[in-house]
């Protein structure tokens, strides 16, 4: 009698194992997708901060374009509004500002938005002028938003 049910039992066992495999595989894919999003959010905020910190009178147009490309929403609009003044000051004073990203940490994350704290430093030199370079320290709270499948900074606020 057991021989009659053995193929059915084996089939049922294989079906259960296959379903469990798909279930576990789906959870692993979901976990990997979430980790990929967390990494992309941190990269987007860090890249934007580095773009804000690095500007030179020789490359100011490309520098401004990088900041605009890494931002969206109110962050992009505010930077675009101030870009002409930044360009004039940078070229007029022959500024070379070299930035360094120190840290970026995820505060919170939803499906399409995240909050990141970012720390960076910049060394500012003025070509053709004597004097020592100045070092400045910056800390931001950034909102990062998924826009068209890409994470971009939508709000950047300096924090003390």
From TrEMBL:
It comes from the Bacteria. The lineage of its organism: Bacteria, Bacillati, Actinomycetota, Actinomycetes, Streptosporangiales. Keywords: Membrane. GO terms for cellular component: membrane. This is Mce-associated membrane protein. Its main location: membrane. It is found in: Membrane.
């Amino acid at each position: 009698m057991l021989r009659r049910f053995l193929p059915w039992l084996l089939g049922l066992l294989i079906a259960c194992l296959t379903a469990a495999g798909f279930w576990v595989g789906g959870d692993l894919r979901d976990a990997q997708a979430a980790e990929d999003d967390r990494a992309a959010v941190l990269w987007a905020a860090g890249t934007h901060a580095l773009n804000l910190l690095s500007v030179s009178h020789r490359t100011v147009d490309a520098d401004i374009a990088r900041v605009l490309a890494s931002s969206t929403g109110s962050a992009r609009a505010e930077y675009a509004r101030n870009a002409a003044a930044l360009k004039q000051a940078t070229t007029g004073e022959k500024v070379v500002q070299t930035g360094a990203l120190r840290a970026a940490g995820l505060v919170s994350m939803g499906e399409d938005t995240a909050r990141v704290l970012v720390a960076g430093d910049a060394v500012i030199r003025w070509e053709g002028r004597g004097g020592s370079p100045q070092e400045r320290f910056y800390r931001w709270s950034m909102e990062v938003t998924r826009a068209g499948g890409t994470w971009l900074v939508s709000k950047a606020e300096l924090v003390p």
